[in-house]
Specification:
It is a single chain. This protein is of the alpha/beta class. It has four helices and eight strands, in the order βαββαβαβαβββ. It is globular.
């Protein structure tokens, strides 16, 4: 949604990175449906033709001009959903996820952005037999660094902890998404036909780590 001439959004200007992704589109559409926000979408991929109506900039979060964009548009809040998933450590994904987030936070601090909301995952806690039934936000992070995207998220969260001290005026909130199921999200249990000695086909349950999770590639 683009604000009418002369209208001032009471909630300020919100920039959503990864706006062309599954979660980026949903968040941008929800925010754009409220008159209190002006929403700007940013993604290195084009916004789908049936995507939400909003001001859109096709650019990478590592673009050197990001800080100038944030300042010129008077962005108050950034929702960072841009990510690239990888099952194994991948230099290209690491650069986009970790270096991209570092660049984004530095650009936000320099442009006077008030707050940043980052999308992480409950995978950073790690699946351990000693885990309690309920994990609190301050529980230790034992996520497996053998899984590329989890490793990247652990690096990002570690950087955020230090950056908060460097830029105390910038509020940083990290939301750890849990895996979800649904017709468009990729369920954690996937059924695939594979050959079997017992018959022409049998059904196999694929573990969650082998299927897509909530963090859509943008």
């Amino acid at each position: 949604m683009t604000q009418e001439d002369g209208a001032t959004p009471t909630g300020g200007v919100v920039l959503v990175t990864g706006a062309a992704s599954l979660w980026g589109q949903r968040l941008a559409a929800r925010l754009a449906g409220r008159d209190s926000y002006r929403v700007i979408g940013l993604d290195r991929e084009p916004l789908p033709a049936d995507g939400p109506p909003l001001d859109f900039v096709q650019a990478d979060v590592r673009n050197p001009a990001l800080g100038a964009l944030l300042a010129s548009e008077g962005v108050r809040t950034v929702c960072h959903l841009a990510s690239q998933e990888s099952t194994v450590p991948n230099p290209a994904a690491f650069d986009y996820n970790v270096q991209g987030t570092m660049h984004l936070l530095q650009a936000c601090a320099g442009a006077g952005v008030a707050q940043v909301v980052l999308k992480s995952s409950t995978a950073v806690y790690g699946a351990r037999p000693s885990n309690p039934a309920f994990l609190t936000e301050d529980a230790p992070l034992y996520g497996s660094r053998r899984y590329g995207y989890t490793r990247d998220l652990l690096e990002i969260e570690s950087f955020c902890n230090g950056f908060r001290r460097q830029a105390p005026a910038l509020a940083i909130a990290v939301l750890r998404f849990a895996s979800i199921v649904g017709p468009s999200a990729g369920p954690p249990i996937d059924v695939r036909p594979i050959p079997s000695a017992a018959g022409p086909w049998r059904r196999r349950a694929v573990p969650p780590a082998a299927t897509s999770s909530i963090s859509a590639t943008s």
